[in-house]
Amino acid sequence: MSSRRALRSGSPVVPAALSLSRRGFLAGTVAALAAAGCGRTSPVGDDRAGQGTLRIGAIPDQDPEVLNRLHGTVAEAMSAGLDLEVTYAPVTDYGAAVSLFRRGDLDLVWFGGLTGVQARTQAPGAVPVAQRDIDAAFHSVFVVNTATGLAASDDLTPLAGRRFTYGSETSTSGRLMPAYFLQEQGVDPQGFPGGPGFSGSHDATLQLVASGSYEAGVLNEQVWRARSAAGEVDPAVVEYARTPAYHDYHWLLQPDVPARLGDDVAERLTAWFTGLSADDPADAEVLELFGAGSFVATEAANYDQIEAIGRELGLVS
User: Fold this and answer.
1) At what angle do helices 281-290 and 64-82 cross, to 10 degrees?
2) Is there a shared CATH topology between the 3-15+140-242 domain and the 40-135+248-313 domain?
3) Phi-psi label, residue 26: left if phi above 0, alpha if psi -120 to 50, beta otherwise
4) N or C: which terminus of the chain has fewer CB atoms within 10 Å of its end residue's CB?
5) In terms of Cα–Cα distance, which of 297, 6, 31 is closest to 177?
C-alpha cells in the first residue's frame, strides 16, 4: 500500500500482520506507552452498594470542564430514558479508567479504541454497546504552527526533525494510530528532536502547538472540528494532514453489570444510544456534545486493527 494513498483513503486500514520493518516503531513505543443522584457527578466508589445505580466514566481526553458537561448531560438523559439512577465519575488518566473498569468501580465507560481493547482483555465478557457514527471511520489530524511554513500535504515526512507532541501516551487517536501511520511513511515516531512530547489531552496539544512549544502535533478530528467551529483554535495552528480511517471511541459495558441491572441491560443501552434522534431537542443536545449525527451498534471485531497493533506493542495481552 502506498503511504500517500493511505492518507487519502476513507476506509479503515486493517493490517493482516505488522511487518518486521516496523520493529523500530514497536521498540521505541513500548516503553513509553506501557508507562502509562440522577445525572450527578460523584467520586469513583461512592455508593457501590447502590445496586440500581449505573456508574459511567470516560477517558480524560479533553478539558475537565468539557467532560463534566458532556457526561453530566449524558447521565441525566440516560437516567430519564432508562429509568435508572446514573452517576458520572471523573477519572484522572487513561490507565485509571481501565483499572476502575476492571475492578467494577465503573459500569459503563467511554473508551478510545486502545483503552477499550485493554479493558475488554482485562475484564472478559465486557460488551461494546455503541459508537458514534463518526467512529466507524475516525481520523487523527496532524497540525502545525504556521511559523513552520508547512502547507497541507499527504506527505508526513516533513514532520521529521520538527518538535512534535502527541496527546496521552495511550490515546488511540492522539498517539497509537498517528505513530503507526508515521512509521508507514518512514518517519520514526520516537525520533523527533528531544523525543516526542505527551500533552495529556487533545486540547492541551492545540495549546502547545499554538504557543510554539512544539512545532507540530496530532489530535483527534472531532476535537479539532469542534474547537475550529467554535473559533477556539489559535490562528497560529493549522491542519497539515489526516490519517486513514480507523474505528475508535465506543461505550463498553462491564461484565458484572447484568447481574445487578438485568440480563438485557446491554441491549437496553444499545437501543437507547441508537435511538437518540437529532429531531428531538434533548437527544440533539447529547449528539451535539459528542460531535455525532447518531450512535450506531458496534462489536468487538471492529477494533481488530487496534488490537493487532496493541498486541504487537505488548500493550494488549
Assistant:
1) 140
2) yes
3) alpha
4) C
5) 6
pLDDT classification of 265: cutoffs 50, 70, 90: very high
Contact 109, 119 (CB under 8 A): yes
261 close to 84: Cβ distance less than 8 angstroms: yes
Average pLDDT of span 6-17:
45
**pTM summary value:** 0.80
DSSP alpha helix (H) spans, the chain:
3-8, 23-34, 64-82, 94-103, 113-122, 177-184, 202-211, 221-229, 257-261, 265-275, 281-290, 304-313
What's the CATH superfamily of 3-15+140-242?
Periplasmic binding protein-like II (3.40.190.10)
Task: Determine the pLDDT at residue 47.
Answer: 41
Are the C-beta atoms of residues 42 and 90 closer than 8 Å to each other? Answer: no
Q: For the chain, give every domain's residue range.
A: 3-15+140-242, 40-135+248-313
Which has more pLDDT, 248 or 37?
Answer: 248
**What CATH number labels 40-135+248-313?**
3.40.190.10
For residue 148, which phi and psi values (nearest 5 degrees)? Answer: -70, -25
Which residues, at least 6 apart from 195, have a Cβ–Cβ distance to it below 8 Å? Answer: none
Alpha-carbon torsion 115, 119, 122, 126, what sign?
A: negative
